[in-house]
Fold this protein.
Amino acid sequence: MTHPFSNLAFDHIVYIGAGQGDELNQLAKSLTAKHWNVVDASENNVQKLNEVKESLQEQGVSIEVQQKVVASSAEKATWYNYNLAEFNGLHKATELKALFPGLKLMSSESVTPTPLEELLDNLNVTGDNNLLVIDLPAQGLELAKALSETPYKRVFNFMCVGSQAETLFESSNTAAELKSWLLENGYHTRNEEVDDPDFPKLHFVLSQAERKLANELKQAQEQIEQANAERDQANAELEHANEAMHKRTEWAQNLQAKLEKSSAEKRSLLERANKAEKRSSELEKQLQSDAAQARERAEALQAQVEKANVELSNANEEKQKQAEWAHSLQAKLDQALAEKDKLAERAETVEARNSELQKKLEAAEKYNEQLAKLNERMDSMFEQQRLQLEQATNALGRHITQTSSQQVTELKARLSLERTFGKSLINLNENDSNLSEVTAVTLTQQLEDNSYDLIIEFGAGKSTEFLANAIINNHSPNQQLENKSGSNDFEASDFDLPQHVLSFEHDKKQFNSVKQRIEQHNLQNLVDLKYAPLIPVSQSQELFYDCERALTNVSSVLDGRDAKVLILINSSASQKQPSYPASVPTLLNSLSAFSLDVVISYKTSSEKTIEDWQQLISERGLEFENKGSRDMCFLRINS
C-alpha cells in the first residue's frame, strides 16, 4: 500500500516508538526527509534500531537514534514489562489479553519520562514541513494533545498516529476518539484504508487555515523583530550623532580656552612692555641727570685745577700739597668718568631690552591676528559642515521616498515566497523568467484562498513550474492526476480535482524546454502542456494561441458545474508575440458560463486594452471586478 505522504519531501521526521526497526525500514523506503530522529524507550529496541541506522546511513539517509521514555509530562510513572515486548509501556494491558491470551506481566518499575516538548526542544526542529510519527497505541491521543499545547503544533503540519480500535490498555483512548479530537483541533484526514484493524495508523494534516494563522503569527513576529532592530539602529545612530556633537563641542571649548589663554598672555606682555617702557624712561631721565651732574662736577674740577695751577705757580711751598690735592681731584674725576661709562652701558642695555620687548610685542600682535583668522576659518568650516549635513539629509530623504516603496513591495514578496515554499522555491529573478515575484505572491494567495477546478496558462515557462509547485505546497496530489499529461484530449474525469495546470505555448523551442524541465522534476501528473501555434483570430489579422478546441473541451467537461477557473496570461519569451488583446475575448467565447479569475501582467496589456475588455464584458451582461494593482491586472468575472 502506498504511504499517504509518499509524494512529499519533509525537512524532519521524528519517529516515537519505533520498536525494533521493521516499520522504520518500510517508512524509510516510502518517505523522503532531510533528517530522521528515531526514539524508543527499550534498550534492546535501541540496539536493533542502531543496526538499522547503520544500514540506512550506508544508503545516504541522515538519521539519529536515542533511548527515551516519552510522555506528556515529567511526572513519575510505572513502566510495565510483558513477555511480548512490543506491548511494554506506561499503560497496563487490560482487554489486550483477549487478543493475546498468552500475554503475561513480567515486571514493573518506576520511571521519570521525558516530556514531549523537552524532547522536541533538544531536537531543534524548525520550519513547518515536518512529520511526527507516534507509534504508541496507548499514548496516541495523550501525545497529540501535548503537542497542541506547545509551539510545535505548527512545526509538525503532518502527523501519523498509531491507535487502537478498542480500549486495550488502562487510561487510553480509541482511534475514534483520537480522530474526533484531531478533527476538532484543526487537522483533517484523507481517511486512508488501514492495514491493521486492531491497531490502525491514522494520517493527519494541519488545515490550511491553521497553517495560514501560523504564517501570519510568524510574519507578525518577524515584523516586530524588524521594527525593534530598526529602532535599535536609529538609537545607535542618534547616540553616534550625540557623541560626535559632544566631541565637536569639547573641541570648540578647548579652542575657546586657548584663545582666552592667548588673550591673557597678550595682556600680560602688554603690561610688561608698558612697565619696561616706563622704566626705560625713568632710567633715561636718571642718566641725563647723572651726566649733567658729571659735566657740572668736571667743569667745577677744571676750574679748581686752573685755580690750583695759578696758586701753584704763585706758591711753591704749597706745590706738594697742591699736587696731592690735584692727584686726589684727578682720582675723583676718573671715578666720575667711570660712572659715566657705566651709565652709558646701562642706557645701551635698556635700549636693547626695549628693542627685544618691541619685537615680542609685534610677534604677540601677529599671533593674535592669526588666532582671529583661525577662529573665523573654524566658524566658516562649521557653517559649511552644517550646510553639507542639511543637503545630505535632504538628499537621503528624497532617495528613500523614491525607492523605498518599490523595494519594500519586492522584499515583502520575496520573503513571503521563501516562507511559503522554503527551499523548493524556484528562482524567479533569472533573465528568462516570465513571472515576477509580486505576481507569484498574488497567485499563491489565490490558490490558498480559493478552490479552483482548473488553472489555464498562456505562455509556458518558469510560471508553469511555479504553479505546479504551488499546488504541491497546498495539496498532496491525488493519484487520479497521474499520467494525464500524455493524453491529447480532455475527458470528464480529467478535471475531477483542481490540482491541474493546462498550459499553452506557441514557440516550439520554449515548448520543448519547459516540457523537459517538467519531466525532470516529475511534474507531468500536474501539468498538461500543449503546443499551440499562433493562428488568426476570427476574420482579423490578430494572432493568438490555437486553443479553441481545447477550451471547448474544457467547457464540455465543466458543463453543469459551478466551476471556478484561474487564468494566467504571461508575456512570451520569443520574438513573435501573440496578440494579447485577443486573450479575454477568446476566453469568453468558450468559458463565459464559469467564474474566471484572470491575472495579466501590465507588460502584456495597456490601459486602453483593459478598458476594451471591461466594455466587452459589460456588453455581454457579465459581472466583473478589477482588483488590479500597480504590478498587474486582475479581472474577476462572474464571481
